[in-house]
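Good day; I would like, with your permission, to put a structural problem before you. The record follows directly beneath this note:
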Amino acid sequence: MMQQQKFQIPLRSGRIHAGKPPCVFFAQGRCRNAANCSFSHDSAVEAMRPRSSVDDSGSAARDPEDSRGELPCRFYAKGNCLKGDSCPFAHILPITEAGQAVTDEALSMSGDGKEDRRDDGIRQFGGAVVQFANGAAVVKVSLQADFSAARVSFLPGSATPDTVSRQLRQLGFIVSHDEIRVRPSNDPKHCVADIRVEDPSFSRRLCSVIDDHSKELKTELKAVAINCPMPRMSGIHRVECKKVLCSWYRPFKTVWLNFGSQNIAQKVHDKYCSGRYTVLSHPVQVHAPKDSRTPVSRFGKAAPRVWTVMLTEVPAEATREDVEKCIPPTIQPNNIELGQPSFFYEGEMANALVKSKLMEIGPLEWWEDAVFGQKRAKVKARFQDDGDAAKAASLLNNGPLPFHKKGKLTVQALYSARFKVQDRIYQAVRPIIEKQTSTWLAKRVYFAAYNPSGTSACRVLKLEGDENKSVAESKRELEQILMGRVAMFNDKTIWTPAFTVNGDVFGELKELEQRLGIVIIRNKRRSRVELFGRENKCREAEELLNEVAQRDSSTSNFIKLDADQFAWACQGGFKAITEALGGKATFDIVSTPKRIVVTGSDADFRLAVGMVEAQNKVNPTSTSNLSEAASCSVCWTEPEDTVLTDCGHAYCSDCFEHLCVSTATSPTTNADVSLSCEGDSSRCRKSLSLEFLQEHLSSDTLEEVLEASFNAYIARRLETFHYCPSADCGQVYRSETGTFTCPNCLTSVCTSCHAPHQGMTCAEHKDMASGGYAALQEAKKRLGIKDCPRCKTAIEKVDGCDHMTCGGCKTHICWKCLQTFGTGNECYEHMDQVHGNIGLEGDLYEF
């Protein structure tokens, strides 16, 4: 579970506690003395706590027309603003070590990450709901046609998903309560239930059975088929609406304190005003002492004077002893009178009733019992289905409390977006995020960064707010920050083959990182360098990287290994090569066949080839002290940002991402994608669990791997699944008898011949199309369009090399001869060997 590091902030502030003065350096996040500091860290946090812009009643604390409230207070950031709540500028703290702006409202919205469940491995691709399992393997694909839904009316007003599920079971239908949504109807005596099941015939059968059942028993129960929406999935990089905040005013009572001395009454009054005296640790409202004596007693004598202090907003559960507890014995009141609570309820009952109201909207994934603030009780809950939070806010907000009809229940839907990035990238762009946080806060969007869990090198970031548009805008801004920048010089990508190996050039890149305070990622798959950090530092890095690339004359060449050569390389041969070449070789065990890539001069390459061909016996003591267990299982060098698998094998974080993407995007032609460990010289083959992939892959890489796995799954089942023929549509449908109307582009497609010919038979369409076939082929030839040899999808080459990937079946194709391949590497080897080049001007391609 992700742990979020944050300050512990009291529910109410106002004064710095007596004792040690606050540590200004701690408030600025740079105290070096930690626990040995002679100043108070706790009071520094309380003094620095920003004031919420909205109070418990929902009214604005500041003048909305005062634009100064949108600007951060520079004295507050330094820990020495003397105006407190009266300051017209925004009291906004820098982000904490966890990356979160410390505000009560932010903590209330963002929480500590516990309410965010683990990724369930379900995605939507091409209009299909896809379930993934270990190894990112596809285990199930469901289409919209696989679902059906029905609405059952005139159910008892007390019906719940569980009671409806039991009633359906009696009718012969096994339906989980998670598939049932119960909601009120216009008639308070009845309610309706919407039922969605992954069974295309379910709604038809249910309507028929309930109709017969109602006629037989003469009941009002009715069922009709309704449009069936696809289940909405959660995931990284999308705005979802699952979480709600519910609150209501707490019950209070009034208390009267009677004193015989005006001075003592005034003193107690002042103590309550200052917050020194509380009831059950809650501040209360206090009224000025009043003389409540009667002028003349019944015996005609003046009665003793009584001074009464009235306390309001006292917690309903407070007793006389609770009130007396904070008042010293020497100034105790002569008498304490307790009024009746504004309403009666039990905390457990309130939790249960509010929870049941939410569960009428949809099943809950997570629930937190009420936390009682100064005036209001607040609960947080998270629905299983996206969109249910907005529905709950629409139906329940400002409605009556289920346990107090005069009270109002406030229900607020929250929108959130999550990201997962390498922690070192987050640390590099954190100053940029800090600057952006104040802009997000002005839009009531709160940012949180959760500490990496376990051995993961990735950190989860989250944006959350109560307005969909604001969260979506903030999401796009954060995406832009996390994207970094591609190193360019004179509008050309900076790259040299020397960037791929851990040699001298790599050492220069690491030195640049340290000196400039940025992160440099060598994207070997896309042959580019990606920079993360302050813009001025990244621009400086581009100039220096270009100098490195210009003076480097290395080329990359590869040595294919047969089974004996691969075994020799694993037993020390590769390490002998790296020592001989000074780190200019990498071990590519992802490709088929395995190979050693040498990046250096022609002499370096000839030396490596000679060592492989000779296969000299390697003395283990002569090789590097780095053992295989401690080496990266892909590049066989010391791992950078180590990823350690459950089976005990290590990877560089970049190598691990490259392994996952390469395996998913270039699967073998006769097998689905299933990622496994390449440790122990590719003999481990233990499947990488879906949880492990979610933990150690950045969100962009994970989504790329899952989508590639889905595309490979569909490509191997073209007799069952097809893509919509409309250009750039990408919707998937199942081969069946009848017509498929694409919900994305609304094109009607015959599922027998997979062509759009609405109103015609397949034969009529074929006859009509045959007359124009020659013209169509001539037009394709003139426009440079060719058909995929496998699925006949039209392909046009705009620029780049002759390696093409079909947009329909994802087959790798040589554009010159239209030969197909299972992987991109096979296609490149074919083009190099058969055609002598890969179709780029100047034949610049080299391994």
Summary: The chain has a mean pLDDT of 78.
